[in-house]
Write a structure and sequence with these properties.
The chain has ten helices and twelve strands. The chain is of the alpha/beta class. It has one domain: Aldolase class I (TIM Barrel, Alpha-Beta Barrel), CATH 3.20.20. The protein has an eight-stranded parallel beta barrel, surrounded by seven helices. Helix 1 packs parallel to helix 2 (64-71) and helix 8 (208-215) crosses helix 10 (236-245). The chain is globular, with a radius of gyration of 16 Å. The relative contact order is 0.15.
């Protein structure tokens, strides 16, 4: 049985507004989280990811009021990340309406947090976000919204995350982010082959062909995109129709 591939719009949120940048720079405001989330669900999105992109840098918690208002608009799963650094933070984020919670900086700083949260809430609710940048022939993990290099190898970190009990990995190519030039297929495929848990490909989706490549050549179980949806270049429905024509099983 072939599992259906998922198409996931991403809401990068800063100060309560959805924003978008290029390679984690040149951030511009594009809309309101609840409004956009509802709009994407109507288009056929399988899930929505909500990332509070400045929470870790500003050393604060996620804006739960915005999460709550966004979750109230949705019947599809909502994944929330940014500023979640304890088991209690995950609890309050789930209570605010998230179905899954994403960790990046906090997981790198305290890997046991992954196990603690998986034990309490189930692996299916624990997503680890890996922001990876090409460095001397491999990929280095970055934290704090792409600002801080960690010295960690992305492939080795993936294996560790899997062992610790994460249910999914949100993999972002920092080199591709916002460029709309296509996903880093080598990175995506390498990470998929290093683990047994689902990988969401992110960073570089600019047209339906790119999402198809991430799901086929890249072997990802889901493709996340922002710019092509935010700027009205394609709807989620149009991307799914293109994938169906290519023989990809989508919902």
């Amino acid at each position: 049985m072939t599992l259906a591939k998922r198409i996931i719009p991403c809401l990068d949120v800063d100060a309560g507004k959805v924003v978008k940048g290029i390679q984690f720079q040149d951030i511009q405001e594009v809309g309101d989280p609840p409004t956009l989330a509802s709009y994407y669900e109507q288009q056929g999105a399988d899930e929505v990811v909500f990332l509070d992109i400045t929470a870790s840098v500003e050393k604060r918690k996620t804006f739960l009021d915005t999460v709550r208002r966004t979750a109230e608009q949705l019947f599809i799963p909502l994944t929330v990340g940014g500023g979640v650094s304890t088991v209690e933070d995950m609890y309050t984020t789930l209570r605010a309406g998230a179905e899954k919670v994403s960790f990046n900086t906090a997981a790198v700083n305290n890997p046991q947090l992954i196990s603690e949260c998986a034990d309490r809430f189930g692996s299916q609710a624990v997503v680890v976000a890996i922001d990876a940048k090409r460095t001397n022939g491999s990929w280095e993990v970055y934290t704090h919204g792409g600002r801080t290099p960690t010295g960690k190898d992305a492939v080795e970190w993936t294996k560790q995350v899997d062992d610790l009990g994460a249910g999914e990995i949100l993999l972002t190519s920092m080199d591709g982010d916002g460029t709309k030039d296509g996903y880093d297929l080598e990175l995506t495929r390498t990470i998929v082959e290093a683990t047994s848990i689902p990988i969401i490909a992110s960073g570089g989706g600019g047209k339906p062909e790119h999402l198809y490549e991430a799901l086929s050549e890249g072997k990802a179980q889901a493709a996340l995109a922002a710019s092509i949806f935010h700027y009205g270049e394609y709807t989620v429905g149009e991307v799914k129709e293109f994938l169906r024509e290519k023989g990809v099983v989508v919902r």
